[in-house]
Amino acid sequence: MKKIALFSIFATSILLSLVLGAEKINAADLFCSGDTFSKTILFDIRLPRVFLCILSGAMLGGSGAIFQLFFRNPLAEPGIMGISSGATAGAVFAACFGLPGAAGLSALSTGAFIGALISGILAVAVAGKKSPATLLLCGTALGALYSAFSSIAISVNSRQLHSMYMWMLGTLSGRGWDEVLFILPLSAAAVFLSVPCIGKLDILSCGEVTAVSLGLSVKKLQYAVIISGALAVSAAVCAGGTIGFIGLIAPHITRKFFGAKAKVTVPLSMVTGAALLALSDTLCRTILAPSELPVGTVTALLGAPFFLSLLLSKKRVTNA
User: What is the pLDDT of residues 152-175, one digit of tens each?
Assistant: First the structure.
């Protein structure tokens, strides 16, 4: 019943994303021959945006679940390796210094992908030499470094301040089928690499010593987790900029209702993340219509109190 409820919420989030918006869709126009205003809104604007919400939310939710299981840290999330900050830095440099777009993408999306790729390579390089605990701290430091580069670039070219501000808050406005077609193979590759990790993460939950005694190579698993996470985050950032907290919230909701086994947590966290992002994006498009809020503001309003509640509950358990 719980799974049926989750997939019902997921389906409802998609339907609401297609139906609601600043402009009303005339159902009769959809069945008329020829192009109509309602068809343009539905098929050229809202439908690709829904696909981007599903893909981005699924990548953030799934990678968040994998990171939390691997690091055995309930506060871990996709941005923990600095890949989100690296992607943002790439987008900032592309916009500020006039770098061209590629493969039909805007300069922002192209720069974000390059930044995510470079930061992912650095994360993998660090992963080869450090333990998982040290890797978390290195990722935090790298993220701060990328953010500093972004601030410097914006200071040098303040004309891009508004567009960069919107990007850093996270927004799906103006995205279309080109972005969908670009991030689809990235998302597929991330899923392909993460599937073999799922069973191994359940073994790792017994402890690293026990996992090694059972023949698990923690170092190989670490590489697979970081690479799949880098691909997932790069896909999500290319689609909608820096969207925070989905990767933190979705796995916790999933574990609360469906348990902590990786084979259940990871796929259902993808569904939960997709539904959360679709509902958040719909709220952003409708609450102040025809104006639009960045979707990252809504996810932050949801995620920040959630994050604080996790910290406080963890402190209570520790004190007890």
Answer: 877 777 666 666 777 777 888 878
In this predicted structure, what is the pLDDT of residue 238?
80
Domains of the chain, earliest start first = 2-310 (1.10.3470.10)
**Count of other CB atoms within 10 angstroms of residue 14:** 20
Asked if residue 294 has a cis previous peptide bond (ω within 30° of 0), the answer is no
pLDDT at 315: 52
What pLDDT was estimated at residue 130?
66
* Polymer length in residues for the chain: 320
Instruction: Give CA separation, 271 vs 39, 41, 148, 208, 301, in Å.
Output: 27, 25, 34, 29, 21
Helices (H), ranges, 80-207: 83-96, 107-127, 132-156, 161-169, 177-204
Looking at residue 111, its pLDDT comes to 80
pLDDT of residue 312: 74
E strand residue ranges, the chain: none
Q: Please, are residues 30 and 42 in contact by the beta-carbon 8 Å criterion?
A: yes
Of 46, 49, 62, which is closest to residue 248 (Cα–Cα)?
62
What is the arithmetic mean of pLDDT over 102-123?
74
DSSP 227-279: HHHHHHHHHHHHHHS---SHHHHHHHHHHHHH-S-HHHHHHHHHHHHHHHHHH
Q: Using alpha carbons only, give the angle 90, 94, 99 rounded to the nearest 5 degrees.
A: 140
Is pTM, for the whole model, over 0.85?
Answer: yes
Q: H or E stretch including 88? A: helix 83-96
